[in-house]
Amino acid sequence: MLVTIGRRVILRHSGLSGTITELLDNQLVNVCLDIDGDIIPAFIDDLQPYAENASRNRTHDQSVSNTQAIQGSASEIPRGVLLAFAPMLRSDATPYAYQVFLINDLPSSILIEYQRVTQDTTTPAVTHNMQSYSALRTDEFNYDTLSEHIKIKLHAHLISKKGTHNGQQNTIRLKPKAFFKKVADAPILNKVVHLYEGLPPFKNITGKPPRAKEDLKKYTKDNITHKRKSTRQPYVRVHEVEEFASFNSEIDLHIESLVDDPNGMTSKEILACQLQHFEQFLQKGYQLGIDKVFVIHGLGKGKLKQEISRRLQKMNKVKKFKNEYHPRYGYGATEVIFK
Fold it and tell me: Does pTM surpass 0.70?
């Protein structure tokens, strides 16, 4: 049996169930009992998996690295939007980081915004368009970050042919003691994770627009940020006025648009060239006081999009970014909004 922090187990001699909270040495662990919450030491040889069925015996090290959506099958009872934290393990089976998955366990597509907040940092809000019964890796953080009072902010709307509606939001606080107890099989992912209920099932699950038009009106008003003037008041030198007026707020990162002859370039060289143009473009747009820009990366295998997303999350000048459907770019571009 793979022994990891957060693993659900049963004590062979007593039949009590609990969760491993600490690895004391190669023979002994601490177990938090389900019955009363007491933490007791136990020998690894005296433990067995919480359940013997195949789904329960999946190990934590089956991590998902693909950022594309994972499609699942319909649940008997929709559970809403779930947050799954999958441990990434060292060779000694201890976690060093967690992959964060959004799970849409609903029969309707949703538009969902995700943001992680700690004592010291706030990641840019990222918006995802998720199909029904699908999962998507949206974030990753180190094991030590659990002690920094993590808050996950979610804001989602149903999507129908008439637009987005029935918005709801929630903030999930990750407390280490409770975090290690929330171990379960995640739907769609089909793996053992630390599982939280992010948002309950929407009241209007059929996708029909709400009776009260105020909700949709308020959502539209709150989200038309491009009509608002930026709160930034950058100092623009005289010679930059012309640059501001002529600045193209989109960049096409297809290699054919960046270099005259891409033949002979390796995949690493192509990616490095694309990212260099991407960072120069963002820096120039921010310096000129542009409110938002579009980065065209295409679909492909998603490696460029993944690297762009990773870098945007670390940029202090970025307020939020999203990769939702756009009538001009489809899903092949990311919109970046500056602070």
Answer: no
Residue type, 27: Q
CATH number at residue 119: 2.60.40.1600
Looking at the fold, whether 252 and 213 belong to one and the same domain comes out as no
Q: Are 143 and 24 members of one domain?
A: no
Residues 47 and 70 in one domain: no
Residues 149 and 241 in one domain: no
**Domain interval for residue 325:** 228-338
Identify whether residues 164 and 281 lie together within a single domain.
no
Distance CA 234, CA 260 (A): 35
How do strand 318-323 and strand 125-130 relate by DSSP bridges?
parallel
Same-domain check for residues 268 and 298: yes
- What is the pLDDT tens value at each position of the chain, 339 positions in all? 677 777 888 887 667 778 888 888 778 888 887 766 777 888 888 888 775 333 333 333 334 444 456 666 555 677 889 999 988 888 767 788 999 999 998 888 888 999 999 988 888 888 888 888 888 999 999 988 888 889 999 999 888 766 666 688 999 999 888 898 888 888 888 788 899 999 988 765 444 444 444 455 555 555 554 444 445 555 444 455 667 777 888 999 998 889 888 888 888 888 888 998 999 999 888 888 888 999 998 877 778 888 898 889 888 889 999 887 777 778 888 999 998
Q: Is 114 helix (H, G, I), strand (E, B) or coil?
A: strand
Q: 303-312 and 267-287 helices cross at what angle (nearest 10)?
A: 40
Check whether residue 110 and residue 195 sit in a common domain: yes
Residue identified by tokens 């187990």 is 9
Beta bridge partners of 116: 152
DSSP string, 271-296: HHHHHHHHHHHHHHHHHTT-SEEEEE
What is the Cα–Cα distance from 103 to 82, expressed in whole angstroms?
5
Residues 165 and 120: their CA atoms lie apart, in Å, by 33
Torsion angles phi and psi, residue 330, rounded to 5: 65, -130
CATH number assigned to the domain comprising residue 234: 3.30.1370.110
Cα distance between residue 247 and residue 229, in whole Å: 17
